[in-house]
Write a structure and sequence with these properties.
- The complex is a heterodimer of chains A (302) and B (152).
- By secondary structure, chain A is α/β, with parallel strands linked by helices.
- Chain A is built from nine helices and nine strands.
- In chain A, 36% of the residues lie in helices and 15% in strands.
- Chain A is globular.
- The two termini of chain A are 15 Å apart.
- Chain B is built from three helices and eleven strands; from the N terminus they run βαββαββββαββββ.
- The model of chain B has no long low-confidence stretch (mean pLDDT 88).
- The chains are: A alpha/beta (302), B mainly beta (152).
């Protein structure tokens, strides 16, 4: 990890990922610790995000830290035209760690260059969201007992989905096999398939969700968003096709779990929620432990 | 220059001749090397016949010798450029341009949502394809290829 900031998932080695996951596991067993009692964490959310911000703030609170920050940029000096650099340099005076969500791509990398305190990227536009990927990895390892050699089904918007791209890159370090399930318009970009070819990992593509699900260890659902379609008719055609329903899970492996980065709209039917294979709400809880581990790591506290 | 071939741009006593510049990129090379800011005698020719490039341009700068790093900065606009170092009217050394591993400035990132296009941040790229000159932004991680290159 450069400068002890966490900007992108691909700058973590396999060993560093495992170390963070092990640490998150310790926090899960013992979530109330006082390790941040002398720490002020700034949460700068230049665009709204419910889960990411609240789980960070929950993690800081449980570890005894203090929080300053904002949840939207409109009431801050940013709306007066302050540059990101100036905001970061100012806030760094008031805090020991900055957690930042920003709509501009590359903003976190730039912030980490100018900031004297560590930066944790909580999402920079469509670019990187490494803490989401780490909590996904934590959830996968916890439910499957391993990260090695798993069969991962990625479903929904695979073209623009930042979370699925990062997850693919991270899981490829652990020899996963992938099945891509999406409408034609939202298929996994060629660069990722070429990458998998280059590292010798297997993948297949299908447009039918209700196919081969019995092979899955993880079904990772994402939202198919209306605004991704140039033709509204195309959206109408597929919007109800990529909906996971409880009866589709009948022949799946007992150990299989359904993950979703949330928020969900209609892509997982609510009748799945009571199925023990539904894991997305626990996944959101895992975000707290994982973010505890990430903060402890960048602050050198563990 | 071969014997008997007419010089389109007059010879220099000491300095550097940059040859095999694609004609359309002549002024980009001048710009990148900062030649408009120096006081040396500079002569250049554009739209000269070239078997390799169709139309080529040439720049002759008197009493100026470039550092390796400076020369490589023109690689994205003139990857086939050849430099002749002239001392006392004779070529004493020939240098080829090398596409560097990293490029700072010079090129604009293709992504309108990139921090380098939103705030006053100097662009930085890793060169991921030297032959076709394809650049990966250090900040937003998007790829800028030759077709979409805009020079700053």
């Amino acid at each position: 990890m450069k400068n002890k900031s966490l900007v992108a998932i691909n700058e973590l080695s396999k060993q560093e990922i495992i170390k963070i996951l092990d640490l998150a596991e310790d926090f899960e067993k013992n979530p109330i610790q006082d390790i941040l009692s002398k720490t002020i964490v700034a949460t700068l959310f230049f665009e709204p995000s419910t889960r990411t911000r609240l789980s960070f703030e929950s993690a800081v609170n449980r570890l005894g830290g203090k929080i300053i920050g904002f949840s939207e940029a409109s009431n801050t000096s940013v709306s007066k035209g302050e540059s990101l650099k100036d905001t970061i340099l100012t806030v760094a005076n008031y805090s020991d760690l900055i957690v930042m969500r920003h709509p501009v791509e590359g903003s976190a990398r730039y912030a980490s260059e100018v900031s004297p305190v560590p930066i944790i990227n909580a999402g920079d536009g469509a670019n990187q969201h490494p803490t989401q990927t780490l909590l996904d990895l934590f959830s996968i390892r916890k439910t499957q007992g391993t990260l090695e050699g798993l069969n991962i089904f990625l479903v929904g918007d695979l073209k623009y989905g930042r979370t699925v791209h990062s997850l693919l890159m991270a899981m490829s370090q652990f020899g996963a096999t992938f099945t891509f399930v999406s409408p034609q318009e939202l298929q996994m970009p060629a660069e990722y398939k070429m990458y998998l070819d280059s590292v010798g990992l297997k993948y297949s593509q299908q447009t039918d969700l209700n196919q081969n699900l019995n092979k899955a260890d993880i079904i990772y659902m994402t939202r198919v968003q209306r605004e991704r379609f140039s033709d509204p008719l195309e959206y109408e055609k597929v919007k109800n096709v990529y909906v996971l329903k409880n009866k589709m899970l009948e022949n799946t492996k007992p150990s299989m779990r359904v993950l979703h980065p949330l928020p969900r709209v209609n892509e997982i039917h609510t009748d799945v929620d009571s199925n023990p294979k539904a894991y997305y709400f626990t996944q959101a809880l895992n975000g707290v432990y994982t973010r505890m581990a990430i903060m402890a790591t960048v602050l050198n506290l563990k | 220059m071969k014997e008997g071939k007419k010089l389109s741009v007059s010879a220099i006593e000491n300095g550097t001749v940059i040859d095999h510049i694609p004609s359309k990129n002549l002024f980009k090379v001048i710009n990148i090397l900062g030649l408009e800011k120096i006081d040396n005698l500079i002569t250049f020719g554009a739209n000269m016949e070239s078997n390799r490039l169709g139309k080529k341009a040439i720049i002759k700068i008197a009493d100026k010798f470039f550092e390796r790093e400076e020369i490589n900065r023109i690689a994205v606009v003139a990857p086939l450029a050849k430099l002749n170092i002239i001392k006392d009217y004779a070529v004493v050394e020939k240098q080829l341009v090398e596409v560097p591993n990293h490029i700072e400035g010079i090129i604009k990132c293709v992504n309108p949502k990139c921090i380098t296009n939103v705030e006053n941040v100097k662009t930085k790229f890793d060169v991921i394809d030297k032959k076709n000159v394809s650049l990966k932004c250090y900040y937003c991680e998007k790829i800028t290829d030759q077709e979409h290159m805009i020079y700053l």
